[in-house]
Amino acid sequence: MRFIAVLLPVLPALLFPAGAAAGETERSLFEKETPVPLRTPLDHRFAEFWRSQSLPVPREAADAVQLRRVHLALAGRLPTPEEAEAYLRDTAPDKYENLVERLLHAPDFPAFWSMKWADALRIKSEFPINLWPNAVYAYHRLLHRSLSRNEPLDRLFRRLLLGTGSNFRDPEVNFLRAAADRTPRGLSRNIALTLFGCRTEQWPEQDQQALESFFSRIRYKKTWEWKEEIVFVLPETAPVSLTLPDGTSVTVRPGGDRRATLADYAFAPARQVFAAATVNRTWSWFFGRGLNGGSGDDLPRPGPEALPEPGKLLAREFAEGGYDFRELCRRIVLSAPFRASPLPAEDVDREHAGRAERTFAQFPLRRLDAEVLDDVIGTLSGNPSAYSSVIPEPFSFIPKQERTVLLADGSISSRFLGLFGRPSRDDGTVAERNNRISAEQRLYLFNSGELYRKMGRIPGVWKVRGRAFPAQMERLYLLFYSRYPSPEEQQTLRRAYPAGGKEKWLFLQDLCWVLLNSKEFLYQH
Questions:
Q1: What's the pLDDT band for 435 if we cut at 50, 70, 90?
Q2: How far is Cα 147 from Cα 277, in angstroms, rounded to an integer?
Q3: How many Å apart are CA 121 and CA 50, to the nearest integer?
Q4: Mean pLDDT of 69-82
Q5: Taking burial as the number of CB atoms within 10 A of a residue's CB, which of 144, 145, 245, 462 is the most buried?
Q6: Among the listed residues 129, 125, 123, the one whose alpha carbon sits nearest the alpha carbon of residue 142
Q7: Beta strands of 165-291 (E only): which ranges?
């Protein structure tokens, strides 16, 4: 790594402390000089929200930043150098909108978002969930197929809530099995978290007991087939009066299913219970925090009342639009907050900078998801990770060419995924995933010989060698950052570039290592 010291100055100072000044060169790499456009009712609600917080409309992120950001957000991958170059050269005024449509309808979209929803649904074969491998893969296929077909999300979750039958042959019943605690209280807490976006542990005891009553008739039984389990519901033998979370009393008739009454409450477009929970959770997946400022699944009560005005609008549009998840993602990535600059406004104090982050007037920065980072390193080096189960129930061997984001089983992991915060899928909370950089991660990125060797493969895999020096640098920057190097970066690189021989090969390997270890690469911005 003889070139590391001379290459470090090429890295831009992306992550400024709140209120810190940024030079014009750095700013031009990450933002435009014009404010982010306000085109939709949602954008104008945010503009009003920002004005109420004494914040200006933020600048728009640079084209390269938006290109990289939307690929990571919708597809969980980086654009290829060819995709980046084509986008940066495109002069069409609607090129961003066209890019969004391509990504929303590409196979990468359901692949990546299956991973996100699998976290929330606790899709995991081993302790403490114990779905077992056959059920895991059936459950994950159901989820992936639904997202691929853009099935209305309320239809999918109604099916999950009301499922009965075999965990192997009726995959939706695994929603009621994916719980360490299958008592009525345990089930009610899991379902309130998923459908309402609420932590019922914070509710009064009387309200918790009222919700538990909807799940008191669920039963489980084994079969003669290994690990198979049947989920069934005892029908009502007499009318029973129950209380919904909003305090409304409902009566379940003989032969009825209590869960159906709760489903009617959760998915009613007028109440927006499931809509508010989904909007808040999905927003947190895009921005690192929910619209309410919390983790994304910590609404105090079901419904949109705790959301700010932009969130209430988005929840209403989602419910009235038929719970179209693809349309929800489209509205988010076309919104002003998503297209905003990742840098704090110029000459602002620390208080205003912090307020801008909390109110989405500045795009928040966070490290790439563990699975995405693993996929990206595998794609860059042409050497993807291999995964298999450790328990023969039966053994699962994942094809090496399959993306890490498509790992169905949360029990199949690796040292790398564990180190970089992949969730255990034990409780289904957003907070299970840890996207903060740590000292241990830095040590791995700095010192891993295996990672450094993978970086040495990149110039060959991506046909960097044999090109003229400027073309080599452009291709590597497009590959890692989805942008061209600035004149200052090119000048620094040219000064460090060796005259010839083996030194050129070592230079390219060291440069790849430096680019990968940069904040601009490791963070979503």
A1: very high
A2: 18
A3: 34
A4: 98
A5: 245
A6: 123
A7: 165-166, 218-222, 229-233, 240-243, 249-252
Query: Beta-strand (E) ranges in 193-306?
Result: 218-222, 229-233, 240-243, 249-252
* Amino acid at site 378: G
**Do residues 176 and 164 lie in contact, with contact meaning Cβ atoms separated by under 8 Å?**
no
Strands (E), 180-269: 218-222, 229-233, 240-243, 249-252
pLDDT, position 27: 87
Closest C-alpha to 287, from 313, 311, 266, 317: 311
247, with CB counted inside 10 A (0-12, 13-18, 19+), is exposed
pTM: 0.95
The distance between the two most distant Cα atoms of the chain, rounded to a whole number of Å, is 88
Q: What would the pLDDT profile of 64-73 be if each residue is shown by its tens digit? A: 999 999 999 9
Question: Tokens for 1?
Answer: 């790594």
For residues 362 and 344, the answer to whether their CB atoms sit within 8 Å is yes
Please give the single-letter amino acid code of residue 265.
Answer: Y
Summarize pLDDT for 160-206 with one digit per residue, the tens. 999 999 999 999 999 999 999 999 999 999 999 999 999 999 999 99
Domain boundaries defined on the chain: 2-106+321-364, 109-277, 370-524
Which residues on adjacent β-strands are paired with residue 299? 198
Answer whether 215's CB lies under 8 Å from 188's CB.
Answer: yes
Give dist(CA 301, CA 60) in Å, integer: 35
